[in-house]
Fold this sequence. Notes:
Blueprint: H1 3-14, E1 24-26, E2 33-36, E3 42-46, H2 49-55, E4 60-66, E5 70-72, E6 78-82, E7 90-94, E8 101-106, E9 113-117, E10 131-133, H3 157-160, H4 163-178
Parallel strand pairs: 3-10
Antiparallel strand pairs: 1-2, 2-5, 3-4, 4-9, 6-7, 7-8, 8-9
One zinc ion is lined by residues 46, 48, 50-51, 60, 134.
Amino acid sequence: MSEVERGRDRGEALAGRRATAGLEGGCACGAVRYRLAAPALIVHACHCRDCQRLTGGAFAVNALIEREHVEATAAPPRSFELDTPSGRGQEVWYCGACGTSVWSRYRMAPGHLLFVRAGTLDTPEAIGPDVHIYVRSKLPWLALPPGARAFEALYQTEKVWSAESRERVREHVARLAASAGGE
Ligand SMILES: [Zn+2]
Ligand SMILES: [Zn+2]
């Protein structure tokens, strides 16, 4: 089997694999550590320009998960605000010591979902993207695996997310609304 074929097999095996509960990760210097207390709702490979700049790579792998399921186990990360095409912005959290960004929150997403940078997991191979987004700015030398789900920009949640994940977010939003000061 050629190198290319092996790579393709690996890509297909990983596609759609979800983070299982209990995965741990952290920044490059180890000051920020976290644990995911639930599986990801969905995993994006995001090819937008912001993700390319923030990671210094071709795309970011973002595991979407409710904030209450991300347990920071060491120093809490710091954050800054960035503009987004939606106009509603995102808040990016990073290690105050080494600058590694570990997750962000897009204000247009429902409830309080965090986009955890799966490249900061101790075992990043444990998950793979369910869907590729913003492929309109995908780097031209990067070929997606055959059959990968890909969108020029964003997608409609109802058409892509599993029923289970949609239900989890409904419950999450209801809990936020029920708690004082919920958003
Ligand atoms: Zn650090
Ligand atoms: Zn992005």
